[in-house]
Amino acid sequence: MPGPVPVFGFKPLTCADMKRKIVYFAAALPPSWSASYRLLRWLIRVLPLGFRSPPALAFVPVTVAGPWPEYRSLLCCSLPTTNSPPPMRKVVLYIATSLDGYIASPDGSVEWLPTPPPGEDYGYADFLANADATLLGRATYEQVVESGEWPYPSFTNYVFSRQPPRQLPHESVRFISTDPAAFVRELREQPGRTIWLIGGSTLASPLLTAGLVDELMLFVVPRLLGAGIPLWRHQDHAQPLHLLRTQTWPDGMTLLHYQLPPETVA
């Protein structure tokens, strides 16, 4: 079967075409118009054009001659594309904190975190199944590395640091020296699943301020540390939160799941 048929400047459908108001689509006609119509309706359903329902089609038959004798004619139709941009990836701050707001002891240790009861993981596996990238500050990254084998080999892991790694990182780890907010803003627009903001608070703070964190899943441990590394840093402005759900476990662990306001462009 020959390649795409270049008739009157029409070309194969591309991602750039999909972003325009009108997309031109061409397909070879079977012997009957009804079969052609069914073919086009099927293609519209399987192609990622973003239609909520199949649109009406306007047909323009074009006779094809020359090097494509097996084509009886060509069908060209204009498809109004959706005006809505594709949904951006979510950034979720999924983190545990003491009741008094600390995410680590003064020395950076997290040994105070409780061991889940047998058969319980506080929803951790389900969360990981929907994510494919992580965001880490340098101190958090070093802590994870020192804890043993790299735990996220199937993810793309972005470590924000202006200094190179002290040792060769895992192949899934990428060191980022650019502005975190600008980088994450672009990352959210790329295809993929949920982006897990692991921490720490030094990285989370500018992303929260920029409105680049979509959800907060805060696991409150029933313990007072009295001192340590705080979860919250200075924020330039107050942010209202919308409570999505709560969950508690028999050992006192409590999940507070919030939605944050979206980024606003001045």
UniProtKB/TrEMBL annotation:
It comes from the Bacteria. SUPFAM superfamilies: Dihydrofolate reductase-like (SSF53597). GO terms for biological process: riboflavin biosynthetic process. One of its GO terms (molecular function) is 5-amino-6-(5-phosphoribosylamino)uracil reductase activity. Residues 89-252 form the Bacterial bifunctional deaminase-reductase C-terminal domain. This is Dihydrofolate reductase. It comes from Hymenobacter rubripertinctus.
